[in-house]
Amino acid sequence: MLYKDPSRSVLDRVEDLLSRMTLSEKVAQLTCTLMISGNNQLEAYKHNVAEGIGTISYLNSSLTGDLHKDRNLLRTIQRFLVEETRLGIPALVHNEGIAGAQIPGATTFPQSIGMAATWDPELAKQMGEVVKKQLLAFGFRAVHSPLFDLARDPRWGRVGETYGEDPYLVAQLGVAFVQGIQGNNELMATAKHFIAYGNSEGGRNGGNHQLSERSLLDTYAFPFEAAIHEAGVMAVMNSYGILNEEPMSTSKWLLTDLLRIKLGFQGVVVADYGSVSHAYTRYRVAKDQKETAILALKAGLDVEQPMSACFKHLVDAVNQGELEESYVDQAVRRILEVKFRLGLFEQPYEIGNFEEEVQKLEYVSLSRNIAEKSMVLLKNEDTILPLKKNTSKTNLKIALIGPTSDDCINFFGGYSSVGSASTTSGDFDRSQQDQFLKKAYQTMITEYKDVLAKRGIVFDVEPSQEQKELIIEGLRQSTRKSNKSYTTAEDFISRFYPDCQTVKDVLIAEFGKENILHAKGCNILEPSEGGLEQVRSVVAQADIVIAVLGGRESMKDPQATEGENNDNINIDLENSQLDMMKEVFQLGKPVISVIVDGRPLAASLINEKSKAVLYSWLPAQAGAEAIVNLITGKSNPSGKLPVTVLKDKGQIPMVHSRLPIFAEIDQWSEYIDKDLNAPLYPFGYGLSYTAYEYSDLIYDQKVASDGKLTLSFKVKNSGGLSGDEVVQVYIRDCVSSVVRPVKQLAGFTRVSLEANEIKEVSFTIDMKMLAFHDPQMNQVVEPGEMELYVGASSEDIRLKGSFEIIGEKIIVERKVFSSQVLIN
Q: Could you give the CA distance from residue 710 to residue 788 in angstroms, rounded to a whole number?
């Protein structure tokens, strides 16, 4: 058969296979199924995919921790699809990857917000390459990563999954990660969540979005457009929520007119989990599942996930004349094209040895390197850091306190293998469990009728009330069971990451057990019995205090302060920690505060009273070593903030690329409380143990509207230690036909310098990168004067200039997404 011949073109193979498919087989390619946990229902599972399946969800929630059994189960299902279904179409099995492959034992990396703080796309690419190898070695060929969302509201629970607030920074890190993870068509990356997911009203996950079309196109679409044209991303995932009073999953304007026609995407659009059903269950733009399926498919959504609650009705919709089969064919072509491009028909199983891949020490070193470069030193009063082992003639006594001082679980993001380990339904609260049971019940009565029949529950269309109660009670009982080979997250870490250390472990190794006085003091959300007394005792005996504070990112953990479906109106530390720190500050000892969190916290008290403040984000398995390495000076801090850190939630939104409010560029607002008229720390900010000087700015005075600006300057390490400086270039349009940002990030690079070393940094910036939509909604580059800023942050500007764009106003079909940089 032609479609099985790898020497033929992908297009020919797609068309040949499509011509052989029945309508039911076509629709099956537009659906997804959750991989079952264990194999007790294997035969029923095979029956449900007898006509094939488009994608399979096999996340940590499905994995048992018995890696041999889990991998064999995946191989068994894939072999069934390839060898026992009529056409032998393999499934595209997906996982997650923003913090490493979501597989027990896979190398964990700092989650995306930490990677963003490195401002180093090459590291993102290297991480992507490792994640790709480990996913391939397990049998995965798709990953639902990375996020191209902009994080502009710290109340939103998923900030830690993003690359920050700036479209240019997000684009550079995201594109590099996609390039690493897709390789040479080896694995499918997914750009998500299209679009503006992180900017709903009130920071509410999946809520309504109030954005103009121009803002959507010029700001929020920029990273996605870059991923499409610079990285060739194969898939895009729609967002939850509402835009223009339309559900994201059923909006033709969004998924076809904008994504495909305007932005030029030609790949497959996969649904975020349950988002298709939301159109009728939440937003009520359709009366039932079939009508929802028709709306979503016509809008341009290709694959429903994680189950086929709506798309399974597409067969009836076509047969009953409610939907043209051409819409089905169009979506099937897209998913088949991806499968052929990936070589899935030739090699549907594992590529590589998973056990060997996860034992490579160079991957752990890469994770540690990223963690160290991600950490941002916000304050270092009296140069208290780096710490030395001895003061005068006595050993330094350190009081180590805080909820993450002797706990490494908080180092991991919610989408890491650790953060998603405990995913049994017993972790749900009552309301969440009710929602789970409701969804699971619908799945059971539609996709597992044979299983129910074996239990004596037989019905035609709908179960009787008595049968319904039996089914729900069975599901409720099943939620209390776990097929996991581990019991808790702590057990998971000890089994799969036995070398993961706490800050306490590493400090003891560095300073000696006799010099570390430890008292946890409190939990993340609640005080602990006797905690304050214990803290007072150790602080009284110490020379210095290290407080390891922050939150926990998780969907289900009872100590969670953020995560998917866990938005948090509090953007400060929780009260238990604030109460403890108030007591500590009154004792008068110098305090070094380390914040472990996925969100930028408005910790004004901590920043005011601490001698030093270090943001470590979510640093993963080597996080403790990275923290101590920075504290002791083994590594020189070089991370920069990828977000603006606020003082109070009332300042939301406040970002560096804001539209102007006043005549002066540095005026942010006019609150009665004058202290709230600026952020706590600006975007791009971060300190070092050395100092850097900028000089000799040279640039083009005039640049054609279709030309490129070249500029160069020198950076000198004027301190006594080697280090990395992240230099940043911003541009402001002085007069424009629509209001433009006060500063637009147009370039950045990381410069490594030895003590007293000088390097010249040169940028080339295409004017098409500055294009925007004018009053007629044409994407244009306008002539006129532009201000140029070069500095160490968006506010710490070291060099200034201005240049003029000359020539005619030009219409730009496609922006340029990256500036070019050269370091000599």
A: 11
732 falls in which pLDDT band (50, 70, 90)? very high
Cα distance between residue 772 and residue 780, in whole Å:
6
CA 134, chain centre distance (Å): 19
705 and 808 co-located in one domain? yes
Cα(159)–Cα(781) distance, rounded to whole angstroms?
A: 32
Instruction: Give the predicted TM-score (pTM) of the model.
Output: 0.93
Domain-embedded: residue 671: no
Q: State how many domains the chain has.
A: 3
Angle at 219 between CA 213 and CA 223, to 5 degrees: 120
Q: Position 326: which residue type?
A: S
Q: How many CA atoms lie within 13 A of 634 on its CB side?
A: 12
pLDDT at 481: 61
Please list, in sequence order, all residues whose beta carbon lies within 8 angstroms of the beta carbon of residue 95, skipping any fewer than 6 positions away.
58, 59, 101, 102, 103, 135, 138, 140, 142, 143, 144
351 contacts 485 by C-beta, under 8 angstroms: no
Across the chain, mean pLDDT equals 93
pLDDT score, position 3:
95
Q: Are residues 611 and 724 in the same domain?
A: no
Residues 234, 240: Cα–Cα separation, whole Å: 20
Is 229 a member of any domain? Answer: no
Same domain for 638 and 502: yes
The answer to whether the beta carbons of residues 172 and 164 sit under 8 Å apart is no
For the stretch 105-153, pLDDT in tens is 999 999 999 999 999 999 999 999 999 999 999 999 999 999 999 999 9
pLDDT for the residue numbered 432: 41
Single out the residue in 642, 671, 701 at which a domain terminates.
642
Nearest alpha-carbon partner for 167 in 824, 821, 815, 823? 815
Strand 784-791 and strand 723-733: the pairing is antiparallel
Residues 536 and 579 in one domain: yes
Q: How confident is the model at residue 479 (pLDDT cuts 50, 70, 90)?
A: low
Q: Is the pLDDT at 41 greater than 70, yes or no?
A: no
Angle between helices 623-632 and 503-511 (to 10 degrees): 40
- Axis crossing angle, helix 361-374 with helix 121-138, rounded to the nearest 10: 140
Amino acid found at 688: S
In this model, does residue 248 exceed pLDDT 60? yes
Helix (H) or strand (E) holding 464: none
pLDDT digits (tens, 9 = 90+) for 576-615: 999 999 999 999 999 999 999 999 999 999 999 999 999 9
Distance CA 241, CA 278 (A): 9
Answer for the pair 149, 88: CB distance below 8 angstroms, yes or no. no
Q: How far is CA 756 from the centre of its chain?
A: 37
708 and 760 share one domain? yes
Region of 37 on the Ramachandran plot (φ > 0 left; ψ -120 to 50 alpha; else beta): beta
Q: From the centroid of its chain, how far is CA 779?
A: 29
